[in-house]
Amino acid sequence: MNNHFVIHKAETRGAANHGWLQAKHSFSFANYHNPERMHFGVLRVLNDDIIDGGMGFGTHPHENMEIITIPLEGDLAHKDSMGNASVIKYGDVQVMSAGTGISHSEYNSNADLKVKLLQIWVFPNQKNVVPRYAQISLNLNDRKNKLQQIVSPNSNDEGVWIYQNAWFYLSKLDKNVEINYELKNKNNGVYVFVIEGDIAINQQVLNKRDGFGIWAVEKLNIQSNSENTEFLLMELPMEI
């Protein structure tokens, strides 16, 4: 493997305990500031959140950021200043292009169950766009032992689209299954976040909740070392 990579072990992430919210930050966020972890290319935020029953984030603003939310467990209720009100669950993907400005709230819609989610922020390639919201429900079978595209730059492509030349995939692999990924642009990098299990990427071993960023490569070899390995793969521009 080349030397153009970073490893963010699960236990080295920033952590916040707000009682009702347990958050882990792969990159600097809120009170967690690490100058070595400001972003990976255009990937600015990767938060791994657990929200207690009935709790959540009150209405707050965003601007000029692509915000992707991926529920892992439970149900998350969303309301925003554009009039959208919805609930997203495991198997759904939500995207907001904050653009010129948007306000929203996110709450656990169940009083007795936790909700677990990944929230990802990506710097856009266009500023001050008209704010936009979308969500989709995915077929979970389409990620079994292969890559399921969930985000792209194209509105007519699979998944949701964002204002950035980035592609996101989810995958769930059985043990010893091996797949390959060829980058769409050799100048891009790839950041992989292991949701469950153990994998090896270009022979680099990764475990649950580890992050791995690599660039200056044209393809990746991904091998599952455990049953029900699940991961998120993001190909993104390295230049902001």
Main traits of this protein?
mainly beta, Jelly Rolls, seven-stranded mixed β-sheet, 240 residues, single chain
Description:
The protein has strands spanning 5-8, 14-17, 21-25, 43-51, 56-62, 66-73, 75-80, 85-89, 92-97, 102-108, 115-122, 132-137, 148-152, 160-161, 167-173, 178-182, 188-196, 199-201, 204-206, 211-215, 219-224, 229-237. The protein is mainly β and 240 residues long. The protein has one domain: Jelly Rolls (Sandwich). It starts with a strand and ends with a strand.
The CATH class assignment is: Mainly Beta
Strand order of the largest sheet: 1-20-17-22-15-13-14
* Major beta-sheet overview: 7 strands, mixed
What name does CATH use for the topology?
Jelly Rolls
Average pLDDT value?
A: 97
How many domains make up the coordinates? 1
Query: What is the helix tally?
Result: 0
Intertermini distance: 25 Å
Q: What structural category arises from helix and sheet content?
A: mainly beta
What coarse outline follows from CA principal-axis ratios? globular
Percent in helix: under 10%
Q: Which regions contain 5 or more consecutive residues with pLDDT less than 50? A: none
